[in-house]
Write a structure and sequence with these properties.
- The complex is a heterotetramer of chains A (295), B (576), C (341) and D (314).
- Chain A contains ten helices and no strands.
- Chain A has 295 residues and is an all-alpha fold.
- Chain A is elongated and about 75 Å long.
- The N terminus and C terminus of chain A are likely disordered.
- Chain B is an alpha+beta fold and 576 residues long.
- A ten-stranded mixed sheet of chain B has the order 8-9-10-1-11-16-12-15-13-14, with helices on both faces.
- In chain B, a hairpin with a 2-residue loop joins strand 6 and strand 7.
- In chain B, helix 8 runs antiparallel to helix 11 and helix 9 runs antiparallel to helix 12.
- Chain B is globular, with a radius of gyration of 27 Å.
- Chain C has 341 residues and is of the alpha/beta class.
- Chain C has an eight-stranded mixed sheet, sandwiched between helices.
- Helix content of chain D is 78%, strand content 0%.
- Chain D has 15 helices and no strands.
- In chain D, helix 5 runs parallel beside helix 14 and helix 12 crosses helix 13.
- Chain D is globular, with a radius of gyration of 24 Å.
- Classes of the chains: A mainly alpha (295), B alpha+beta (576), C alpha/beta (341), D mainly alpha (314).
- Chains B and D meet through helix 2, helix 6 and helix 13 of B and helix 2, helix 3, helix 5, helix 6 and helix 7 of D.
Amino acid sequence: MPVKKHPKIESRAQNFARALQQVFGRGFGPGFWLAVVWLLIVAFCALFADWLPVRDPLDPVIANRLNGPFSTNVLGADGLGRDIFARLIHGARVSVVIGLTAVSIGMIIGGALGIIAGYFRGHFERGLMAVLDIILAFPWLVLLLALVAFIGQSLFAISVAIGFLWIPAYARVARANTLSVVQREYVLAAKAMGASTTRILIKEVLPNVILPVIAYGLVAMGLVIIVESALAFLGLSVEAPQPTWGGMISEGKRHLATAVHVALIPSVTMFLTVLSLNFVGDRLRSRFDVKESNL
Amino acid sequence: MIGRQGILTSGIDQFGAALRTGLTCFAFSLLIVSCSPAGQGGVGDNQPPSDPGTPMHGGHLRVALEGETNNWLPGRGNHVAPAALTVAMALFDPLIRLDHEGRFQPYLAESLVPNQTFDQWTLTLRPGVVFHDGTPLNADAIKWNFDNLHKRQGSVTFGSIRDVERVEVLDDLRVVYFLSKGIVPFPDMLTRAVGWPVSPTAVQRYGDEAGLYPVGTGPFELVTWRRDDALELKRNERYWREGLPYLDGITFRPLPDEDARLASLISNDMDVIQTLRQHIVARLRGMSGIHLYEQIGNSSGSAIFNAQRPPVDDARVRQALAWSLDPEVLIEVLGGRGISPVQTQYFNENNVWYSPRAATAWPQRDQAKARELLQSYMSDPQRSDGKATGEPVFIELMCLPEQSLIDLAQMYQALWGAVGFDVRLRQVEQATQIQSAISGDYMVTCWRSSNEQDPYIIFSNDFGPVEGQPLNYTNFTHPVIQQNLEILQLAPDFETRYAAVEQILLLLAEQVPNTWTGSTPAAVAANPRVRNIKDWTFPDGRMGDGMPVAQVSWAQVWMLDDDALEAERAAREGDE
Amino acid sequence: MKPPAQKTSLTNLLEVRNLSIRLNSAAGLVHAVEDVSFTLQEGQTLGIVGESGSGKSVMARSLMNLLPRRAIAQRTGSVTLSGREISDLSERQLQHLRGPEIAMIFQDPMTALNPVLTICVQVSEPLQQHLKMSKQAARVRAIELLDAVGIPDAVNRIDQYPHQLSGGMRQRVVIAIALACNPSLLIADEPTTALDVTVQKQILDLLTRLQNERRMGMVLITHDLGVVASRADFIAVMYAGRLVEVAPANTLFKSMQHPYTEALFNSIPRINDASHTRLQAIPGRPPQLHNPAPGCAFAPRCPYAQQRCHRETPPVVQAAQQGHLHACFYPVFRPVAVGDV
Amino acid sequence: MKLLLRKLPWLVGTLLAVSFFTFMLVSLLPGDPAVLILGAGVSPEAIAALRLEMGLDRPLLIRYLDWLGSALTGDLGRSPMTGQLVMDAILARLPVTVQLGLMAIVIALTFAIPLAMLSASFAGSKLDRTISGIGFALMSVPGFMMAIFLILIFAVTLGWFPATGWIPFSVSPLANLRNALLPALSLAMIELALYMRLLRTDLIDTLQQDYITLARAKGMPAWRILTRHALRPSSFSLLTVVGLQLGGVISGAIIVEEIFALPGVGRLLYQSILQRDLLMVQGIVLFIATAYVLVNFLVDLCYSLLDPRVRYAG
């Protein structure tokens, strides 16, 4: 039997459609689209790195060692004579994979916990928030170092370790949004109609929480890339020879005085990407009015 | 009613502003880097004068090192790192030191005399030497040091003196070391931490914290130690060598970041810096306005194989791995072409033990031969890794997460991959690396060997029986090595010993339990007013062994004051 | 209520001429105020009545130039206060005007007071700023003001924070703030909407009393025709940003011209109605103010609307009585003949 | 005071949980400390002997209770690696990290607050967009890159500030500030951007409140409205985030102290982790986490200073 809705209460579908319209509607400005285009380029490189007509990112040609841009190599060669352009493109894959995996882990686990806490309140909420507070009390780098020491330095392990760090932030975002959604009329109406809890959570709460959470995810991805580079700087990121932007910067640091491009090119690439993620994420977030203070 | 969209629209400005800000910063730093004085620009005018001039007293030296030890107490602290060794030269005096010909000479001791069978050594001390706290250096102090700091379970030096059974006091200034077997190069053991006497009264007084308050007989005594920050030393007014030291004091600072350390010299925050990294040495060579001291040591970066772990338990695999390496390329990755000579054996070309025959025999740069050896292993139905014939050989290379080593490991991987090995890199922290090496839980690992000791000590450590020698990380033993070790242990004359060393080196070149890269260049760069970094002498005027692993004898370093520096400059201009 | 003869001798305190304001919004341009004109003289009260969203508040704020500059897309017409054109003044000159000359009371006393500052600070602040009083003097004066607006135990109340006061008390504080510098014009933007019914009358009575004592001009904005009926000298009815009818209070109720005014009038509950009498709600929804369609804005809801009303915007015309203006092609109350007057 | 009493059990519970988590986190790190102390080249018996001496053979829970018991009396044990008392080591290095962190937060706030006020009061203008853009740029540069660039520019090339090293405040206040400036700056940048964007959003919200319009209607000058009326109600989330960011500052300090070779707690912590100096790591992490919990507890109490609603409700 179809649930009859009060005409004045907006249906879930309408609400969702309106949110979508808000996202892709006008008013973003060219800067936003510029950032989006850059992110699409990065995503494209990450996806098709193996099929792009670039050199082998792992092949050291010692004769090209530390050559500058526009010489033997388009963007120059690194300390082992490997092509920086190819490494950038393949490094994009690592950044995207770590970003996506870490953010997804945080998003799924943290998001679920947050929604449950925000919906059911009570002891679970209080307990969860206490645990999150305790996790936050530890400097993230220490947690990360410990996690990496436990589970190793594979791409997957690093992603999981960084993802773990994001659970508290996501739980907070999801909880804050759930709290506000639960009190809205259409959820109350659905409750009044006797809809099951699971049904309300999945059909009413989730669609309304997921957009702000995803918008926050873009900003989080930017931060994940920065965290990865910090790990790489300490030599604890994904194992060589897998190229990562953070790894390339710390490899290049050795040559700063003699061949600045080795560190500078990945730095600029990373800067542009993180900037774009921040920018796009911030735009989207302000559309959903997720306050930074909720994090 | 009041539109907030003004904040949301035309993000181009905001994005643009962010972009401009960021890129301007990058451009600025680019500009700065390109005109920084550290830029590569050929060979700089940085040779220290051959004649250091007249020594003068006074001055306070600031020295930046690559690290620091955890504990200054010999037997407790880890005193094998170059940074710790060089500081120890200011705080302590070794009983025995090497001279410029590689012979053991008494330094703090007056003499060290063996019996016929080389299993009892009588050490005679100089009269009148006192520790910083006034405690006299006598036979009792030596025995106390041996019993309480070194010959004790849990001491860091315990392993290196396993063949020394006890020390007995003969009289006030003489002790006898009793060995379990005759060892000709026993004096070598007294050049390191075991031979640095510490004041027993001080150690007892400070108890648990003795490692924070080192009290030795060295030319400088402790003022304060702020860990990871600065070790302040002042002149030891009661130093046993008349007129020494020249300096009033020294501050040692650990600056682990190589670039930051170099920057501190350029910006004149520091007077002396030390480095063992090829790429920094390359930059120092291109700089002017400093004095650069270099000494190629016997130490070298290397990769060692676990001879008990398939497939590198098979000599063919090790040989294939060795033949596929191009040391020149490895050196270039470490710091640049020609920065240090190719290492082919345990000793460098200037060393007395160097063997040209072993150098020729050392496998390198023959990919065809490497492929052939690899093929022979792969097609062997009895191949040790248990895989089917024709399957690729899997190699796991363990390395520390340090940038130059990561670069090196990647080059190893590429070179080995080129001849058909399937190579995986595993980055581990030092904690895990040492543990894996000790427990034999590795296949191939990056390693740094420091071979400044006597060949007997080196080889009996590195290739002693697997059961009784924890230092044998490669788990490689061979009858030829055992035979020649016996010769090295007991034969006193150089010719016999040299032949034995050469036999071992030739065997190693054939069996390759480890490979080499380039010799590690030890470098010390100093402000031009700092003099005599390298040319230290024994009390009798005999020249010392310089500064192996950048270990400087601070007692004989001096600093020119402004007047002297000005006078010298004027004199030089007058000459021209 | 003052005799009309006296009024003519007074100068124009506030004069609004053809004021139009368009605002930016996410959905496009909002025609918040369209071609509004009226005058107000010293001591007089103008009641502005209209549904929520009819542009009353925007107009009220624009009288003090309080709208954020960025929000305004376009502003035409003039607002003169005692002969000075408001839109010509700089922000600094406006600051000197606000408080001593023109003051405002807000709709919601719960949000109009700063939660983190004491009542004392908030009341004495304009005194220090405009009248250059010392801190002490301002405090004494603030207590007097609170007394005057009927806050019991003002001496103790003054050091409390807004959240410690009831809604009615807070609105009295807001009134005290508005009156602090003796303004000649007071704009009250729905001053009682957010309050309990019992408190509403007290506040309105207070305002009327104070206005009479101080001979202030007052613009009283409300959505409730009943509120202004007995208190305003003139009443202006606002719909979709336009003034659709302006008349002296007594005239208006005698001869309503605009169908919307009539509809508003009919929606006032009356005591003497029989119980169970259905209140007459205005059918349809208030119009969207962005991109208005041509024609009379009320036409879609108007029972008398003709073809023409949907095509053309009716001009403001003079009705039978002096000073009675309306904008409707087909007024409700038709005078017998123009010539009769 | 009542508020304090009510929250005290919660505080104690959190601290206990923190201590347990610290202990487990550190104890389960792979790598045997006994091996690392002795270094390469010792016999297995020597290692076993040292493990026994260090008590590493006892059950984990017993070791935890033991450690917690002494920790409560302020005794965090003695590092077997360095022979130093853990508490002494922390206290000796604390001034550096605290000074760095405080300087970073102060620098960040001194720039963030005025910039956010400028940005918010001209929201949507070119100025606002430029300021926000700078904020975005700062947020997109990792702290270690910032540190490297600052060294390159101000230490190596311009020579205005030393590249490394530390001089205690007590020795020479001026030299101390000169040494601390670059590291504090590289820590401050990300914080600055974060605070600025946060405060800007909240200020824009606040500036749309009725009481701001009322203040304008009173004829108050714009600067007074910003500082007196808008800043305080807008600063709650800033305060929260400054508290929450403490962990971030410590993490940043680890890297910055490593690059600038500063003798701070962060560097001690990192090196202790690498050397598996378990007691030292446990002590430092416990210390930091406790400080974090206490600071955030204080932040909670601070609300009542800023917001009278909380003060009287409590």
